[in-house]
Specification:
Layout lengths: L49 H24 L11 E3 L8 H5 L19 H4 L5 H10 L4 E6 L5 H17 L4 H5 L3 E6 L10 H12 L8 H10 L3 E6 L6 H11 L6 E6 H10 L6 E5 L4 H10 L7 H12 L13 H5 L3 H10 L18 H10 L1 H5 L13 H18 L16 H26 L3 H24 L11 H4 L2 H25 L6 H7 L1 H10 L22 H7 L12 H9 L1 H24 L2 H21 L3 H16 L5 H10 L3 E4 L2 E4 L2 H9 L5
Parallel strand pairs: 2-5, 2-6, 3-4, 4-5
Antiparallel strand pairs: 1-6, 7-8
Helix pairs in contact: 1-5, 4-5, 7-8, 9-10, 11-12, 17-30, 18-19, 18-27, 19-27, 21-22, 21-23, 23-26, 25-26, 26-27
């Protein structure tokens, strides 16, 4: 399907060949035979278009993100499974001529540099991945639907198409040509309300949250510009997971989107959606089931030169059974029908070793239907993923613990009607009272004694002692109440240290400190004789600069509810904070779940402790100068402990999640360090990461685990 005038030889880093690089799920490995090189032409600073630089950097980050993810899924593994597609005959889209633009006079999107226009003649016979990329880049309407039955490999095909598109863009040496090739970005549709946000607004918001390139001042505006100018194309997955009416609203809202679209959906849901709304000019192509001969060849390539009798029997049956047709009811052979998708093929190879009795799947009494075979493989997927393998470290978790945990997670997600597992929402999965009581006790025991000792040393009378005890109990309760606030779904406050320490916020903090400190140096000598030493005034006003830095950046929640430091941490200060957000980011990257977790459990935890020290520095020296040093030290210690407890123990999402992990360990038997378990499950290809969110690798696995979540 290549244009005769296009380049005939793939450029460096370009992917070619009709190859589906491995199964769609449940494999682990680090082999990677696709390399994407982004060539950036160096020009004089005055000649660089900021949007060109932003698009090139986004391409680099997206490439690194999906190279890693494809490696985890082993989509780039040698001995690949072919992927094939045909124009869908289902009532999903309009006429083909409406998508190709033939005879219409003017195409909405011109062919990408190096590609020719897509025509009906080129679509007639379908094709593989190279032809799919040519279709994506040459379709006049810029609207492509990837549909098919469950577990046929739609998302994997979309990922490989995205990598092909990035490789094609990287091969454009001329900046002018590269600027005409959009950067493909894969997003899930979860969380979009078309009644409130246009497609461009929603996509700009998602880009600004998932890529640090678009964080801070002007970031969302840059993302919007790239979208409006068609310099980003969106690969949207999960249409079939959205409620029916909302699906129709999304499709209608995408009609006017100014960028290229690739929409991925199960065929059944796509047909139902088309009855409500059709994506104008879209072309629907259907991913074809894996042919039995291809499945047998793939399995044999991963076996020893002399396979066992059981494996020879199974692959021999595949070669003789008729495969499933492209449409209509499954073929008579249950094995070929079950192994018609990359998911089941990957599961088969993971569940059964070289010498295992894989031929038991040929027993039609035990496995009379394709669904019976698939369910059997799904039921053993977790055990296979956590089995000890020669040459690999011992798994951190037993298969029993892993399966119990994943069943619980799957059931909770099913109960919430979502596939997205946001670790910072975990505190809402359990009752908050046990955590409140624990934080209350810790706060009273750790933070209360210094204040009580200080009060007793000043006024050693029984009433003061009672008041000190009651104050400690009341203060502990106030700290514990913040735990309940984090049980409600919270937005992510920040994802990296540059979100908080921007050049503007640092300059603002330093300026505020110098302004207040200098003002006191000028005013106080007029009222006091002698006045405090200058060094003391600058010392005690340093916390004011620290609080200014936090409240003008994305760290404002750290000091909320902290006495004397929390001014400006409320919502009314949001517009001011936006003005101080950074204009650009140096260390651009995609934000993953572990990145966000480490940021909250590391930097934000440290800043919470520093908030306690800041309040101590604000109060202690003044008391020490006005009274005596020991009393100042006691005031400082008391302030530091209570402020630290407020901002760290009860105000940090990662701490709240860690406490929830301990609670779930006793209530559900899950691992204590739950986030570490989630990342380990991702490495074992049971979960995947989409931005800062975890998902089960496949909806069928989540459904099966949720259905099996019964009391043991």
């Amino acid at each position: 399907m290549n244009d005769p005038g296009a380049e005939s030889t793939p450029a460096s880093g370009e992917v070619s060949g009709n190859d589906f690089h491995g199964p769609t799920a449940f494999q682990v490995g680090d082999h990677n035979n696709q390399h994407i090189h982004h060539h950036v032409t160096h020009a004089a600073p005055t000649a660089v278009d900021p949007l060109d630089a932003a698009a090139d950097e986004l391409a680099r980050v997206v490439g690194a993100q999906w190279q890693e993810e494809a490696g985890l899924r082993r989509l780039l593994e040698p001995a690949p499974l072919p992927v094939r597609w045909r124009v869908s005959e289902r009532k999903v889209a309009g006429r083909v001529v409406g998508a190709t633009g033939e005879g219409a006079g003017r195409a909405r999107f011109g062919p990408l540099p190096g590609l020719g226009p897509a025509t009906r003649d080129r679509l007639r016979d379908g094709g593989g991945l190279p032809e799919l990329h040519a279709l994506y880049g040459g379709l006049a309407s810029g609207r492509l639907l990837l549909v098919g039955p469950p577990a046929v490999g739609k998302t994997a095909a979309a990922v490989l198409l995205l990598l092909d598109a990035l490789a094609h863009r990287a091969a454009r040496a001329a900046p002018a040509d590269r600027a005409r090739v959009p950067v493909p970005v894969l997003l899930s549709l979860d969380g979009w309300n078309p009644g409130e946000d246009t497609a461009t607004d929603w996509a700009a918001d998602r880009l600004s949250r998932e890529y640090t390139l678009f964080h801070g001042k002007g970031g969302r505006a840059r993302a919007r510009q790239l979208l409006e100018q068609g310099r980003v194309s969106l690969f949207l997955d999960g249409l079939d997971e959205v409620a029916g009416r909302l699906r129709g609203a999304m499709v209608s809202a995408l009609e006017t989107a100014p960028f290229r679209l690739v929409l991925v959906s199960r065929a059944r849901e796509a047909v139902l959606t088309a009855k409500r709304a059709r994506l104008g000019g879209a072309l629907a192509v259907e991913i074809q089931p894996v042919r039995p001969a291809d499945a047998a060849g793939y399995l044999l390539n991963r076996l020893p030169a002399e396979p066992s009798t059981a494996w020879r029997a199974l692959t021999g049956r595949l070669l003789t059974e008729p495969g499933p047709p492209a449409a209509g009811p499954p073929a008579a052979g249950p094995l070929a029908a079950a192994l018609a998708g990359p998911l089941a093929i990957a599961l088969l190879r993971d569940v059964y070793g070289d010498d295992d009795p894989v031929d038991e799947l040929l027993d039609t009494a035990r496995f009379p239907t394709p669904a019976a075979i698939e369910n059997h493989l799904l039921d053993h997927a977790v055990v296979a993923a956590y089995a000890r393998r020669p040459g690999h470290p011992r798994p951190r978790y037993s298969a029993r613990t892993a399966e119990r945990t994943l069943r619980y997670l799957a059931a909770r997600l099913a109960e919430d009607g979502t596939r997205d597992l946001r670790w910072w929402h975990l505190p809402g999965w359990t009752g908050h009272r046990p955590r409140m009581i624990a934080v209350w006790i810790v706060s009273v025991v750790v933070c209360g004694p210094p204040g009580m000792v200080m009060a007793w040393s000043l006024y050693p009378t029984p009433p003061v002692g009672v008041i000190g005890v009651l104050s400690a109990i009341g203060g502990g309760y106030g700290v514990a109440r913040r735990v309940a606030e984090l049980s409600e779904p919270q937005p992510l406050s920040s994802a990296g240290w540059r979100d908080i320490f921007t050049p503007e916020t640092v300059r603002s903090g330093i300026g505020q400190w110098l302004f207040v400190g200098t003002g006191l140096c000028l005013v106080l000598p007029l009222a006091f004789d002698p006045g405090p030493p200058i060094w003391l005034l600058y010392l005690v006003t340093l916390p004011i600069g620290f609080s200014e830095l936090l409240v003008t950046g994305r760290g404002h929640k750290i000091i909320s509810s902290t006495p004397l430091l929390s001014a400006g941490s409320g919502r009314r200060y949001d517009k001011v904070r936006e003005g101080f957000a950074r204009p650009q980011v140096v260390d651009t990257r995609s934000v993953g779940p572990v990145d966000v977790w480490r940021h909250h459990i590391g930097l934000r935890l440290f800043l919470g402790l520093l908030t306690g020290f800041a309040l101590a520095l604000y109060i202690g020296p003044i008391v020490a100068w006005g009274q005596y040093p020991l009393l100042g030290a006691m005031f400082a210690l008391t302030a530091a402990l209570w402020a630290g407890a407020t901002s760290v123990l009860a105000g940090n999402l990662a701490v709240a999640t860690a406490l929830t992990g301990v609670q779930l360990h006793f209530e559900e038997g899950t691992p204590v360090r739950l986030v570490r378990f989630l990342e380990d499950a991702r490495r074992r290809n049971l979960l995947r990461a989409t931005g800062p969110v975890y998902q089960f690798r496949h909806a069928r696995l989540q459904e099966r685990l949720a259905a099996r979540n019964v009391p043991e």
